[in-house]
Amino acid sequence: MEEYKYDKLxxxxxxxxxxxxxxFNGKTTKRDEIVNTVLEYHKNKGGLSxxxxxxxxxxxxxLENLSKNGWSSNKSYGFxxxxxxxxxxxxxxxxxxxxxxxxxxxxxxxxxxxxSSAVYLYYFENYKKLALLQNNLTGHVRLEDxxxxx
Length: 150
Prior knowledge:
single chain; mainly alpha; Arc Repressor Mutant, subunit A; 5 helices; 3 strands; 38% helix
């Protein structure tokens, strides 16, 4: 059995970073799971508890440090992807640029009039519900200074 190199040592941010890469490389994982797995692994191998009071914050900092090196990325609130290889992974932005330049057609519920100008109206579903509860079928529309002149 191979000896754990951090045996009888308290877990530190540098150890946390190394264990995150070893345990989660190539995976997208919830941060809470990373916190629990890293600490459990370290203790099961003979490592000591952290000296820091807020271990989850130490893990978050380690993930942020890995992110600065290009070895992890925050995919969504609380979810991290670890992707360290021989060199940092640089995500391909070409597809994102293509998506940004595509024209998206927004379906119109109603079109009134014609011409070279338009007014777009958006509403919050909750405002509609409130108007219906108050038996106000006309509602209110707020136009802001979004009109461009050519």
